[in-house]
Specification:
This protein has 209 residues and is an alpha/beta fold. The chain is built from 6 helices and 7 strands, in the order E-H-E-H-E-H-E-H-E-H-E-H-E. The longest helix has 20 residues, at 157-176.
């Protein structure tokens, strides 16, 4: 007697973890090649969703709406700046796309990493308004802003971004943890002490990240 096999049940779908979204802000022309290189290096990580390419739109109001839309969906925005302010916004006097995107990110974004070259000197900046803008970012009062401002070598940018991503992810994991948890922010020179502190916390029922 011929038996007809029952149709196989479809395998349960594995729920994919949402990828970490990074918004790469507009840069000056002098940093455009560096930005593309950084995006290429970060693109090797499968857990990162990289968003770039704004502008267009170029018109001020439409540009702001698009940036705000991307910032709302991004876990982190990255801003690469140097001594050159970048392309000016046609109908917004005294403002450029890189500068405006920093302003919008600080007001509406979730987290920001702002990078400038270690070698940049404020005395070399011709635009006084832009110079003041950068000085305030580095040394001015931050209020409730929690952005990270870094002066580093260009080759360190991908590593710095990856470290920032891991820090944010660890903080989220700690917040969801059913047991008390702590995030250890350490320097490479302090690794030995970090291990000892981590063991101490675990002995006292605190999960260390």
């Amino acid at each position: 007697r011929l038996k007809i096999a029952a149709p196989a049940e479809p395998a349960p779908r594995v729920k994919e973890q949402p990828r970490f979204s990074i918004y790469f802000a507009e840069t000056s022309d002098t940093l455009r090649f560096r930005s593309k290189r950084v995006l290429g290096e970060l693109g090797r990580f499968g857990d990162l969703n990289l968003v770039t390419g704004v502008p267009p739109p170029f018109e001020s109001a439409e540009h702001d709406r698009r940036v705000l839309q991307e910032l709302a969906a991004a876990d982190l925005s990255v801003h690469l700046l140097d001594a050159y302010p970048g392309r000016p916004i046609a109908n917004r006097e005294g403002s450029t796309y890189p500068q405006r995107q920093v302003e919008l990110a600080l007001e509406h974004g979730n987290s920001q990493l702002i990078w400038v070259p270690r070698s940049m000197q404020y005395e070399s900046i011709d635009d006084m308004g832009y110079e003041t803008f950068l000085r305030n970012l580095e040394d001015g009062p931050r209020g409730r802003s929690t952005y990270e401002f870094q002066r580093e070598l260009p080759d360190a940018i991908p590593r710095q971004i990856r470290a920032r991503v891991d820090e944010i992810m660890s903080r989220r994991t700690a917040m969801r943890s059913p047991v008390p948890a702590a995030l250890l922010d350490t320097h490479v020179k302090d690794q030995l002490y970090a291990v000892k502190l981590s063991n101490y916390l675990l002995d006292h029922g605190v999960q260390a990240y």
